[in-house]
Write a structure and sequence with these properties.
- The chain is an alpha/beta fold.
- It has a 6-stranded mixed β-sheet with strand order 5-6-7-3-8-9, sandwiched between helices. A 3-stranded antiparallel β-sheet has the order 2-1-4, with helices on one face.
- Strand 8 and strand 9 form a beta hairpin.
- Helix 5 crosses helix 6.
- The N and C termini lie far apart (44 Å).
- It binds adenosine-5'-triphosphate (ATP).
- Adenosine-5'-triphosphate (ATP) binds next to helix 1.
- Belongs to the ABC transporter superfamily.
- Keywords: ATP-binding, Nucleotide-binding, Transport.
- This is ABC transporter ATP-binding protein.
Length: 237
């Protein structure tokens, strides 16, 4: 049984669709990369999956033990978020909000979970620091620790390496790969880095004038995937 099923999905704003006729399934342990041009609707799809906005039509189902509020989310970083005046610990702890329900404070277990994820992302030494004083790579680790507080099953990551230098980018991919392999967390990641998508992902969803969904091997045989391979070959010459 799939953890996530999207059926005949149409997403957009105020009844105007940005993406339609979308159907795909994600199973436990999959690593799905969502690729496509700027403005094609990747972030809108992710927000709809998270229930932050309703679909215009179609259905989103969760299964195999996954609940809709049990998905961890790392949003695309905005300038405002980069300047957020809170400590690292407070930001990581805020990932437990979905667990609190109507309770207006964090309990012992939630505080322990935050500490555990701070250690896992190796940001212990930064935990008292103010988030806005950190480097881009450190901030992404904090947001990953925060997303982990919401889930042990599925992470949705919106361009997690955007703006990071090559070394920190590689480190971020390694961390995500570790969460996928070691902790068995299903990954759904929006990325403009098709080379990394093809390296790490098990499945690809390519959104554009035409939509492709399939395994990485199928993608590389598809018109969209062949176009990518041709471009990459061209770069290397
Ligand atoms: N809050 C909003 N209200 C109305 N339209 C929006 C809103 N947010 C985004 N859009 C529009 O929806 C379309 C899809 O945007 P979206 O951010 O989902 O694309 P994307 O594929 O994630 O782009 P990028 O790769 O640049 O992040 C765009 O035309 C955008 O202008």
């Amino acid at each position: 049984m799939a953890q996530l099923t999207c059926q005949n999905l149409r997403v957009g704003y105020d009844g105007k669709s940005v993406l339609q006729d979308l159907s795909f399934e994600v199973f436990a342990g999959d690593y799905l990369c969502i690729v496509g041009e700027n403005g094609s609707g990747k972030s809108t799809l992710m927000k709809t999956i998270l229930g932050l906005q309703p679909p215009i039509s179609g259905r989103i189902l969760t299964g195999d033990g996954l609940r809709k509020n049990g998905i961890g989310y790392l949003p695309q970083q905005t300038v405002v978020q980069k300047d957020f005046p809170a400590s690292v610990r407070e930001i990581v702890l805020s990932g437990c909000q979905g667990r609190c329900g109507s309770r207006p404070f964090y309990n012992k277990e939630e505080k322990q979970l935050a500490e555990e994820n701070i250690r896992k992302m190796q940001i212990d030494k930064l935990s008292k620091r103010c988030y806005r004083e950190l480097s881009g790579g450190q901030q992404q680790r904090v947001l990953l620790a925060r997303a982990l507080c919401a889930t042990q099953k599925m992470l949705l990551l919106d361009e997690p390496v955007s703006g990071l230098d090559p070394k920190v980018t590689a480190e971020m991919y390694r961390l995500i790969d570790e969460l996928h392999h070691r902790d068995g967390i299903t990954i759904i990641m929006i990325s403009h880095d098709i080379a990394a998508a093809v390296k790490y992902a098990s499945h690809i969803l390519h959104i554009g004038n035409t939509v492709f969904f399939g395994t990485k091997a199928e993608y590389l045989q598809s018109p969209q995937g062949r176009l990518f391979a041709a471009e990459k070959g061209g770069d290397e010459q």
